Amino acid sequence: MLAFMIRRIIQSIIVMFVVALISFLLFRFVGDPVNQMVGIETTPEQREALRDKLGLNDPVIMQFFGFIKGAAQFDFGVSYQFKRPVAQMIAERAPATLELSLMSAIFALLVGIPMGVYTGLKRNSILSKFFLTVSLVGISLPTFLIGILLIYIFAVQLQVLPSFGRGEVVDIGFWSTGLLTVSGLKALILPSITLGLFQMTLIMRLVRAEMLEVMRTDYIKFARARGLSRTAINFGHALKNTLVPVITITGLQLGSVIAFAIITETVFSWPGMGLLFLHSVQNVDIPIMAAYLMLIGFLFVMINLIVDLLYVAVDPRIRVSGVSQ
Amino acid sequence: MSEPLLKIKDLIVEFPTRRALLRAVDKVSFEIAKGEVLGVVGESGAGKSLTGAAIIGLLEPPGRIAGGEIYFDGQRIDNLADEQMRHLRGKRIAMIFQDPLTSLNPLYRVGEQLIETIQTHLPMNKKQARKRAIELLDEVGIPAPETRIDGYPHQFSGGMRQRVVIALVLAGEPDLIIADEPTTALDVSIQAQIISVLKRLCSERGTAIMLITHDMGVIAEIADRMAVMYSGQIVEIGKTYDLIKNPKHPYTKGLMGSIPSMSGEVKRLVQIPGSMPRLNDIPSGCSFHPRCSKVFEPCYSKRSPQIKVGQSDVACWLYSEEDKK
Ligand SMILES: Nc1ncnc2c1ncn2[C@@H]1O[C@H](COP(=O)(O)OP(=O)(O)O)[C@@H](O)[C@H]1O
Ligand SMILES: [Mg+2]
Q1: Neighbours of A141 (CB within 10 A)
Q2: Total structural domains in chain A?
Q3: B106 vs A223: CB contact, 8 Å cut-off?
Q4: How much is the pTM?
Q5: Which among B83, B107, B177 is the top mutation candidate for probing chain A, defined by the most A β-carbons within 10 Å of its own β-carbon?
Q6: Nearest CA to ligand 1 atom 27
Q7: A220 and A295: one domain?
Q8: Inter-chain CB proximity A218 and B99 less than 8 Å
Q9: Could you tell me if A16 and A106 lie in one domain?
Q10: What is the pLDDT along chain A (325 residues), one digit of tens a residue?
Q11: Does one domain contain both A99 and A239?
Q12: CA separation (Å) from B159 to A279, B100, B103, B221?
């Protein structure tokens, strides 16, 4: 078990190193940072001085280590455009994105799992067929279209939910949360559904497929032969056996949810990291782009690690093979 | 012996398929008395498992009971609603399946599965149920049950798992256990142990067993009566001793001839030529007639009724009174 964890942690570090390399190369070779930072009237001497100050004349390898050292301390330099520390800017934006991602993941799980169980158990009911059709729409419609549709229905026509922004937020230390005010919660609804719809349909279909598989197994047959209640069989014995793949997919998807929040944030003018990233791309603000890349990479790696550990918690068989390896 | 524990009359199990209606169990009738062991033998595909599944109400759709009656303890059970049937399953009628390796849920501790089953059927709190679970594991011969109870199924060998399965089946203190080839998947060396555990615990409790098996040795050892199935029908049923020593039906004769005699004397192995008909191609009249060496006139057109010969019931025209005259 310990060896398994250590191996996974080492793998994670290697992945982060590669991500750092890519971020650095982006930072170093896409455009000329100095050109981005100064005006046209700056003299060549001034430019050269700035180069020195930024360490751009050092050997590349030294620059890379400098970059990693900075990254490890959450120091990603200063935004070209805003002239403020990138880490600070991201920290300000992170709560918005993380709350949105979390809510959409919760939405996807809370709706997707019961729908998957239902459609798996009642294969031929009309409601199941309806769910499956709806899920097909969820999978095939692009996110921005779903967002715009939702805005049209709930914000423009019915006028019950806001179409942009986070609503009122409350600051708790460095974290600004929209979860504590009514307007903040209302503002979360449409973006969360937009962002989570794809994952929800994915989870639903996954749970359904797994349920169909599991219900055919001998241990379910034997559980029924023992007269266990339907609830105990469906939600205990069967559902638990579908959870390993569900945890994997949900975990991996949580990473993509955060990464793909960009589109949803754009549609809903959501003041999160995705929107910040989009603006930084438009303005070739390399430090923000590099920092965002590092952050997303870090989140993916961490989530993967947690998913692996969760497996072990759910499935005792993995626990054993983890030890023996 | 007044009222039989189980009484089956003209049971028919059918599978509607796109091409045809397949009749896999065709008018099977038999009884099992309280505490009696009935052995059921026959080639694979004869309908043994389906008969068992029909009794306990676990036929997999599209398979269904298309005719006949099943009485358990005087109560008709073949037309019970699933929820009512569930209260019989495990508590009055239990079933053991062929493969112990897949009969236990891999994600639950052995103890959890036992306690859940005990609590489903008996008014016990968790602590009492756990104590009972340990007693059961002890009774089926699992060493150190106090610690093994917290093990997961994959930590048990095949034989030990089938012992756990027997403990689970006994947990609800049923009156009838349907054991469908309970040892076929096990190592030959432990098959006898498992059978003797099953036999001992059932005779202590007065539990009846319907034992489906290929192993004539096992039948000879523990079955009070035996039934021979061929192509969805019972061709002969009677006392085990009678059927082994003095088989009446040509198929039973062939079957007995194909096992070596226990006493060691070298008998000629009688092989029955041909194979059992497929469900979509059942011959007219007696379905055994194409393979039968004694075939004569009536066999081609009409199936023989059960005819009392000595203490056995035989479905063969050879024993019809009218023909003898
Ligand atoms: N789901 C099904 N659809 C169609 N035929 C089936 C199905 N399940 C079983 N059968 C057929 O029913 C017959 C009896 O099966 P079974 O009771 O399992 O035989 P056995 O005596 O070997 O236990 C077999 O010919 C088998 O092919
Ligand atoms: Mg079978």
Answers
A1: 14
A2: 2
A3: no
A4: 0.79
A5: B107
A6: B45
A7: no
A8: yes
A9: no
A10: 677 778 888 888 888 888 888 888 877 776 676 776 676 777 788 888 877 777 777 777 888 888 888 888 878 888 877 888 888 888 888 889 989 999 999 999 999 999 999 999 888 889 998 988 888 887 888 888 888 898 999 988 888 888 888 888 888 877 888 888 888 888 899 999 999 988 899 889 889 998 998 988 999 999 999 999 988 998 889 988 888 778 877 777 788 888 888 889 989 989 989 899 988 888 878 888 888 888 888 888 888 888 777 777 777 776 654 433 3
A11: yes
A12: 66, 8, 12, 20
